[in-house]
Fold each of these.
Amino acid sequence: MLESRNICLEVEGEEEPLFLLNDINFCVPKGHFMAIVGPSGCGKTTLLKSIAGIMATTSGSFFWQGRDLAEEGDFKSYEIGYVPQFSIAYDELTVDESIECAARLRVKGNEDEINDLIDSVLEETGLAEIADRQVKRLSGGQKRRLSLAMELVSHPRILLCDEVTSGLDPRSEQEIVELLHRLSRKEGRIVISVTHSLAQLDLYDSIMVLVKGNLAYHGSPGTMIHYFGVQHVEDVYPQLGLREPEEWSRSWLKHRGDYYRRMESEHLEKYRQMGQEPPPVAEPDDDEEEDETPSFLCQFFNLLKRRFTILMRDRTQLVLQLAMIIIFPILVALFSSKGQEQLHNLTDQASNDIAAEVQQHQAIAETRAKVGSAQSGIIMFEVILLGLMGSNNSSREIAGERLIMEKEKFGGTKTSAYISSKLVYLAVLVLVQSLWMYLFVQYFWPLRGDTLNHLGFLLLANAAMTTVCLGISANCKNPDQASLLSIYLVGFQLPLSGAVLALPTVIENITQPFISAYWAWSGSVMGLDNDVLKAVNGIVQTTFSPITLCHWVLIAHIIVGIVLAYIGARRERWE
């Protein structure tokens, strides 16, 4: 049994506190199908999220099988299923793959057990015939069925559905309601559905009516019209406006005993008509069973496999990645002819031809300036382009799927497994991008210095920008905000690096530690041949840092990015 006792949810108002939920009391027995209805903004979704534990209440308690959820621990991940208003499946996956992924993230089992579970859920939700169809090709009703199927893999004792019939045509709506009704008759499952629709009310065991956060009625559909004194169900909403919400709440508290007895009687009669035994009120002591959430490694490999599958099927992102990998090194190679001249030192021998000597000195100085400028500029160009790749890699990686991530965390997915899968996926991108940039440019423009040192800094520069942008993505409210901040971060790399114009010392000391492009550029330049390094120093006013320090600072950037990503992903952000 699910019971609510004096639930209140209070928020700060402009003048005085506002109650989103005000003294909500109800009981829902096992094997029960309940609808939560009411005018827009009355608190339906808020109540559902409060039951799920997504929103914390100000006072009062929910009890599940006699257990105080606030004091004795919330629902276990396998006990509850929550179907939100938004889609919880990726468009690029098929129906079968979506259910399989949900099963492998939430349920322990061998290959045969998982396959049997998937087949059973497909049949139960009527999706078996379209199991190979991609999610983006599903109708609205089919997507709602898929969302339900992804929740049923863990056999939840209580299933919460938020507006799963919203926007559907009448036939699809009826099919979904009938499906929910059947699900409530299996294994004594409680199904609670938030809905705006007042159709198919006869399929529900009880209707809860909310008005401005107050409970106005909770009883059987057959007695609702009598309670509100109306002729038709559609007249209930206008009737609610004739009295204050608190009056409706007080009225219900006076009469709920009689209506609850009527509801219980009708509920039992429905089971008898179906030839079934009603589920017992007392639950066997199976809530103490071991949590069946899969291990870290199982979740990690499943998430990693899914991410690469999505990449290979997302043509837009795949083409963009390939375009950057191909075009960016070509842009750098276009300047490969610059600065390849041999450097000559000034001679100490006196010359009788002063004009020729001056001309020679001027030519050598011009060559040094040309070589130094080209070497410094091409290295920085590589670093900035890899920074742009890093930004594209991860700026939307978490923010773009935030709600799905929250839903999967709610179902038992470990944050550590989620972040680890992202890091390995991004590490592959960083390795491919940086290695190809190095090899392609090296072919046309052989670096005049320590090439392995240069490759290391290209990898570190890309990895640093990728992880920092991943941290930004994890802490932003939406993907557009994350993309904008990441673009700003890349945009400031060149002017604040000092590669073009030396910054004032005060500003340089403040900004330089945060500019990964500076450290990658500086470390690569310090690995150049001595003559080339002298040529670079002759045209660049910024002081270069030791190679070891550059390594450690870039590694610190990577660590900070990973920590920010984990902290941001761990924090709940449903809205």
Note: Confidence is low (pLDDT under 50) at residues 284-288.
Amino acid sequence: MADTKGMQELRREAARARYAAYLKSWTENALYAEAFLLALWPLGATIALLAGVALLLVRFRLEKDFNFRHLPLDVPAVLFALLGGASIIMSPDKGFSFYNYYNLVGVYLLTYFLAGQVLREPRQIRHLLAAVGISACLVVLYGFYQFLFGIDTASMKWVDGEAFPELKKRVFSTWENPNILAGYLDIMACLGLGHLVYCGTKERRWAIGAFILAVAACLAVTYARGACLVLAVVLAGYGVLRDWRVLLACVGVAAALLLLDPVLYERMVSVFTKVDTSTELRMALWESTVAMIQDHPFLGIGWGAYYMVYPEYDFYMQGEPILIVHAHNMYLNYAAEIGIPGMLAFMWFFLGSIYLAFRAKFTMPKLHIVDTPFTLRDEGADKELADITATIEASMPQPARRFWHELIDIEDWRLLSGLALGLGLAFISIALNGLTDHLLFNIPSSMFFWLLAAMAASLYLMREEDQEEEDEETGKAVTPEPEKVETFEMDLSEVLKQNKEEKTEAVEAPAEEEEELEPEEEAKLALFEKMKKPEPKKEGEGGNEEGKD
């Protein structure tokens, strides 16, 4: 009976382990699906997000070893959410603000929660990056399709027709407008640069370099002046501070794009030579937004209520029937809608993510060589044998590796280091773009930002865990346990004390008189002494020995 119960318990444990493996795989796939669909089908990304969160909660319930973990920036994230919710009481339309709040902030926090809890292994980071990269390639290809086959954006109010009469095409691909697409492409170019720095092989450099060039070309045909300048500043700044080759490549690509497209050249030069309606509108919006902040400094005007309150602070358009939904400045917009404390909480989270990304530095793992009697050393015969072995291995035919394998089989420390650098640069691009636009007003863009923030936090925790393991290994190898140290010191002190006592007894003890030997013993001693002395050789014996040799 006991054996039957034991077998049933083992079967239940096996079934529980099998279901846990299924749940883990489904949860990860839901996160990958969200990352892939964010730029292509936002509704599908939201469905994948909700499914992933539901599966994650089931995992917390069923798996004993899978526990909730705190991310480094949980406090500012929750504080931002609370202050944003509190701002609803200041909104002219509290029902709309509440609806807008729980829909937007809900998906932001759920994305951060899902990614932050799932991403615990380099393998998961690898698959997530693959999903993001494939999605970005599709976005770029569709942008080229729009540019080649034509799309008239004159009626979409994205271009000042009087200032730029020749500009008829501004691609936006799967995003809502060219500026949002340009901000997304800035992020992808920065992620590509991070991996380009740490890729390690020629094949990977060519592939990642081609990806960055395609992203830059698609960015150029958006004709988004601010995003183009931001990417140029980020890449040139990295080139000046870390690698001059990046600076040269940036200058070369920018010069080629400006020479090939006169309209792009005119757009970029206009930033420094003239002011168009777009620039005037931004300056007027900033002036109105500052007035809103002065009147509502603590809780703001209400989450998502900018378009409702703006007509009261309209100093520029004077009642024109144009809907202004945000301030075209990320920092001013948050300060106006949720107050200065809410904006500071967001900045804490935002700048903290930049810090975590740059602090997550991974290095090549050290080789742990076990010293055995067969270990070859760098001296004598061992060195010659090692050289012979290396020569034989080099002359043997190596198995053919396909180009695809070279791209995929990248070491974990290279992958994570490249992602950390790319995330840091991507956050800087978002910060610079926020000076002239509010890219996070777009729901998929904000979800993507919170996904990147969760990736930065996960990388930081992975690095902390690796550092703790290295410290433990170093401590075990160098520092003995306290109990063993005390035992060793006690044993050593006793041995030294005993040796000291023996020496003292040997000095103080009188010399013993020599005992007289018996006749038989004297005869044996004499025979022993005789055997120790070599016998003289007879004549001719030496020659015989030499002959034998």
Note: The radius of gyration is 37 Å.
